[in-house]
Amino acid sequence: MNKGLINPGELVDISVNLGGVKMKNPVAVASGTFGYGREYEDFINLSSIGAIIVKGTTLEVRNGNKPPRVAETPAGMLNAIGLENPGIDKFLTEYLPYLNQKGATVIANIAGNTIEEYAAIASRIESCQGIAAIEMNISCPNVKQGGLQFGTNPETVMRVVAAVKSETSLPVIPKLSPNVTDIVEIAKAAEAGGADALAMINTLLGMAVDIKKRQPVLGNIFGGLSGPAIKPVALRMIYQVYKEVKLPILGGGGIMNYQDALEFIMVGATAVSIGTGNFVNPHIAGDVAQGIQQYMEENHIKNINELVGIAVK
Ligand SMILES: Cc1cc2nc3c(=O)[nH]c(=O)nc-3n(C[C@H](O)[C@H](O)[C@H](O)COP(=O)(O)O)c2cc1C
After folding, report:
1. Per-residue pLDDT for 2 more than 50?
2. Is the pTM of this model over 0.85?
3. How far is Cα 207 from Cα 224, in angstroms, rounded to an integer?
4. Strand partners for 134
5. Catalytic entry in 78, 121, 140, 238
6. Rounded mean pLDDT of 214-243?
7. Which of 99, 8, 15, 19 is nearest to 57 (CA)?
8. Where are the alpha helices (DSSP H) in 166-225?
9. What is the DSSP annotation of 219-276?
10. Per-residue pLDDT, 7
11. Which of 30, 47, 141, 252 has the most crowded Cβ, counting Cβ within 10 A?
12. How many whole angstroms from 203 Cα to the centroid of ligand 1?
């Protein structure tokens, strides 16, 4: 750790490179929890955030699932939004220019029903300026044949990642589903498909029951569990993947403060993402980045990369 020693007052470096995405600090806001940024502009300087991963976008407009779409749980929440979004063209022409004008580092989050759809969105994005990377949500939709989930079948993961890679020169970051038996197998498939980095984890499949109505709370019955409840699962999966796969990891799941973020970095995340935490504290991304910086100063760590994976045995 000698090379990391800093003198009092010396600046620490918290910038990171996530598979080709240059981030001024390692804290991103997670897709679907930060809209297209405008909703948060009164609370946080959008250009100060490591990266804004925008709401999941599909080729066509989607109306999402029937309500109720969210439910509170102990230490977390369930959501079944169903990828409601205005479609890729509206995002590129109406929402992206605003974020660019604000100086934000923007990562697009894409989803599709078929491999061809993912590739088509990537190709649309390729023709535009102002996007730093593509995050692929391969954690929920169905494929044409077999109806298998994209993110739970290694062969499909490899094919869909390769299809997107072939359409874009931007860094491609598949977002892995935790709803699998062997996360390392899926991560390796994404690597084989040409991924530049991995985002993990998406939500854990769950449900809740309304005992008065005697029926499931969510209109969709099942939803994705997020928030502090999933943090230990996320840490364990990142730890496992960091040991086996060489790609940089964007880690997240239940981060509510800088100490949580440091745990993710220490098990191998190069950068972190905050989702549910934005609903509790709309300037949490800035607070967490500041907390990490302070921790580094207090502990005489000059460069954040020295902490990445430091707790992995
Ligand atoms: C309301 C809500 C909407 C979300 N929408 C998306 C989405 O559109 N695309 C996606 O990849 N992940 C989506 N997610 C998952 C988050 O980006 C994040 O991966 C997950 O919530 C775990 O992080 P957290 O515990 O910090 O929230 C959504 C999560 C929530 C709570």
Report:
1. no
2. yes
3. 8
4. 108, 172
5. 140
6. 97
7. 99
8. 183-192
9. TTS-EEEESGGGHHHHHHHHHHHHHH--S-EEEESS--SHHHHHHHHHTTEEEEEEST
10. 62
11. 252
12. 7
Nearest partner of 271 among 11, 20, 80, judged by Cα? 20
Instruction: Decide which of 6 and 201 is more confident.
Output: 201
User: Which pair of tokens denotes residue 122?
Assistant: 């990537």
Rounded-to-integer distance, Cα 296 and Cα 308, Å: 13
Closest Cα partner for 135 from 210, 224, 30, 235?
30
pLDDT digits (tens, 9 = 90+) for 76-100: 999 999 889 999 999 999 999 999 9
Instruction: State the helix-helix crossing angle for 115-126 and 154-165, rounded to 10 degrees.
Output: 30
Pair 94, 85: CB distance under 8 Å? no
Ligand 1 is surrounded, with C-beta below 6 A, by 30-33, 55-56, 79, 81, 83, 109, 137, 175, 202-203, 226-227, 230, 252-255, 274-277
Position 33, amino acid: T
User: For position 11, what pLDDT does the model report?
Assistant: 87
On the question of pLDDT at 147 being above 60, the answer is: no
Q: Per CATH, which fold does 2-307 belong to?
A: TIM Barrel (3.20.20)
Q: How far apart are CA 125 and CA 65, in angstroms?
A: 26
| Conformation bin of residue 214: beta by default, left when phi > 0, alpha when psi is -120 to 50 | left
Burial (CB count <10 Å: 0-12, 13-18, 19+), residue 158: buried
User: 34 C-alpha vs ligand 1 centroid, how far in Å?
Assistant: 9
Q: Based on the residue annotation, tell me whether 128 is a catalytic residue of this protein.
A: no
Mean pLDDT of 167-175: 98
- The DSSP call for residue 228 is G
Q: Of 126, 97, 94, which Cα lies nearest the Cα of 110?
A: 126
CB 178 within 8 A of CB 233: yes
Q: What is the mean pLDDT of the chain?
A: 93
Ligand 1 centroid to Cα of residue 12, in Å, is: 30
Q: How far is 54 from 34, CA to CA, in rounded Å?
A: 7
- Best mutation site among 27, 33, 272, 284 for ligand 1, i.e. most ligand atoms within 8 A of its Cβ? 33
**What is the atom index within ligand 1 of the atom nearest the CA of 201?**
19
